[in-house]
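The aim of this short unit is practical: by the end, you should be able to scan a pair of folded records and say something sensible about each. We start with the first protein, listed as its amino acid sequence and then its structure tokens.
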Amino acid sequence: METTKKTQLFNASCVALVVTALAFATRGSFVEAWATEFHLTHTQVGWIVGTAFWGFTLAMVFGGPLIDIIGIGRIISIAFFCHVAGIILTIMATGFWSLFVSTLLVGIANGSVEAACNPLITSMYTDQKTRRLNRFHAWFPTGIVIGGLIVFLFNKFGLADWRYAMGIMLLPTFAYGYMFLKKDFPQTERVVTGVSYKDMWKAIFSPLFLFMAFCMILTAGTELGTNQWIAALLANVSSSPILLLVWISGIMALARQFGGTLIHNMKSTVVLLTSSVLAFAGCLLMGYTSGALVFASAGIFALGVAFFWPSMLGFVSENIPQSGALGLAVMGGIGFFGGFLAQPILGAIFDAQTAAAIPAGQTIEVLKAAAAGSQEAITWAGVQLKGGANTLKFVAFVPAVLIVFFTFLHFWKRKQV
């Protein structure tokens, strides 16, 4: 395929990924607005938000095996139409079920983007998969930065209605739809190399693939779980806690965009092990620091999780190429499933740690209902901050486990050489 055509398809893929990131970044700011406007409980809102995660997983698991049958272009068409329908239906939502269905459509669209674009990129750049996947996935944190800033600026200028932020997502959606229009897509690497469909399925159940799939749950849970909750966990560190997510995502975007050459020249096992160490240190430091030092600790964490997702996909594509598009889809789907699992677990830990931080003689009901500026309100802010910090200390256990796993993987791979 010509270099120009490769570049056009790669750029269109990056814009499509920005849309998935915008959905991730803005959704967290809609929780309270949806609960208030539509008279929903937080449990109901949790079910709505959760559909985006398992909708993504469904699209990856079912879309992956279909890539070689119906083609990359048709999966991208599904993503485009589900994005448009999901965004418009969300804006027009009237209650629980309309929000549930529209968010599910957005989740399916997001999963379809990953299901199509990951094998598209590895098929075009067979000799630099991890490098290109890192550059592609740089646009996910970039989109989170854009989405976070949109929410921040809209609130500053009095455009607090969540529908404005949702409507903005239509612009990059129509942009990537136009960029992909009438483009010729390459065959996947599995088809080109002649690996049979049966061998692809066998590769999915190989011990190495299953090991990496389990690690994907942990790496994705560390990244997506923490980033989805970070604004709530450290809400009292800044007057605009969403800027902490913007800070983390900005560092991740720069690392993926400009660290590709470095990653390309390093062993993927070294990258994954180093990332685990940095993620562990960052989580632990965020739990023990305060003020401006939290942003420095968050920066270390960001460098740790920056290379997790694309390097996991790159490792599988390079070391288990027989798994093909299905392997990438399964890994991505399992990753978002890990992100989904992390949500209620983190929420439960946060609730428990917050309750444990309440001073003797005080009750959570009184502290939460306290008037702004009162001593009780100040106490409640301190309780929330301590609860969030302690939760991050628990989160550090996950990358600690990954350090052990990736150390084993590194030395095992060395013996295979």
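Turning to the second protein, read its sequence before its tokens, just as you did above.
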Amino acid sequence: MMIELKVPTLGESVTEATVGTWFKKAGEKVAVDEMICELETDKVTIEVPSTVSGVVSKIIVKEGETVGLDAILALLEEGAGSGEKNGTSNIKTVEKNTPEKIKDHKNAPSAEKIMKEKNIDPSSLKGTGRDGRIMKEDVMSLPSNKDLQVGDMSSPRSEEKVKMTRLRQTIARRLKESQNTAAMLTTYNEADMTAILKIRSELKDQFFSKHGVKLGFMSFFVKACCKALEEVPEVNAQIDGDHIIYKHYVNMGVAVGTDNGLVVPVLKNANNMGFSDIEKEINKMGLLARDGKLSIADMTGGTFTLSNGGIYGSLMSSPILNSPESGILGMHKIQERPMVIDGKIEIRPMMYLALSYDHRIVDGKGAVTFLVRVKENLEDPRRLLIDL
């Protein structure tokens, strides 16, 4: 019986994918749930398993080609060549009960294929996937001897040419689209972080003891932004044709830099979350991002974004909008600077804040008001507790 292997559900707002690697060739046997190919989407890499035990009859879509939803990737002949003689009937049992078999499939099949082709020792790589699992991107990030110029390797003229990953291509495309579409403008302010630093110093041990997670800066910023968005809802809205969609909730995107590129996991309904819930969710999303395990659902539906360049030492920058959102707040390095307080010069821990916004929907007054409210909430966190 011939079975069609189709593109699986890719997730909200994802309508196409690129065939990255085929793990099987036409005529090869395949077991149920055995990985046949790998698809690269705008956000994640998806491994496609076989739905039957049999033989790969025909591969329809070649590596590098783009496919849409429900497209047919290959034809599988169910039952052909199956049985105990060829060992496929026992594959699932072996995988469950034999540690060596599990170990063989620890890394992503696409990564295993490239390492084998290029004779790369897996022990020389640091995997970014779950439990150190080596992913395709980990292998692709290595300099290739074939791509380097022949001659003196110490020469500054040495070069390498590496194909951009699907994720990197998408980042480049979406950021440029955002610049070309939105009337993007940035307004700046600064916040005195004295009060937040004091609260963290005094309550960090009690907070960790009760909630099992550290009290970081991000929860203060998430709460401060949620509160400001109540007053200036257009920063939390988006344009849809000649309409404006106002969101009566806040799905807060938190930009995270990984070895494979920038990803933005989303805290759903952040406006209803407490400090401990926010810290737990950010910690969870950060681990998923590091291990390459974020799902498409984890990265869709955002209404406003936070970007913390300060963790890399950035003192000032202008963040680019995460389209179709209308606002993104850039956080920066906390640096002690002389400030005039009540007529006296004092040394205070200051942070520059940058709000980039879509001027098509957000006026200058609204943008400045939003940023001032964020500043006030950060400098006096009590405002968040008594609804000011």
